[in-house]
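JOB MANIFEST
job_type = single_chain_structure
chain_count = 1
residues = 159
[input]
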Amino acid sequence: MSGLTETFIKYSESVSSKNILISSDDFFSSISSNNYNYISLKTEKQYNQEVSAGKEGISTALVEADFAIAETGSVVIESTDEALRKATCLAERLYVAVPVSRIVPSLEDIANFLEEKTSNPASFTAFITGASRTADIERVLTIGVHGPCEMTVYIITDR
């Protein structure tokens, strides 16, 4: 395992995310055995599956990250698509796939990507670092108010 992957896992787990190192064959064979409500994989579109969020919301979503930032344990998802944006915000459990080759040391390493994406005023790029956490003035922590209650990152080792 590379130093970048180790660093990403360290910081990702510090905010209660789960991380799974997995081969691409094992990852793609596991998709059919899991019951995801929403799937958006940018590089493997044949797996994509969209559902609209009803009153019950979206229990599970699987999305592909554009990058992962090692120094913060964050995933970066260009989510101009409204369905993708809703899925990453409304899913109770968010599963994110990222090839190990897209783990970068720091935010500066994706500056060109961000510049390209933000040149369109209608674009939206999300930085997600673990489950949503918020606290009120009395410091009562609540998880899952503004995003997922749980987040798992599949780090695909051979893609």
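[summary]
Helices lie at 3-13, 24-31, 82-90, 111-118.
Residues 3-13 form the longest helix (11 residues).
exit_status = 0
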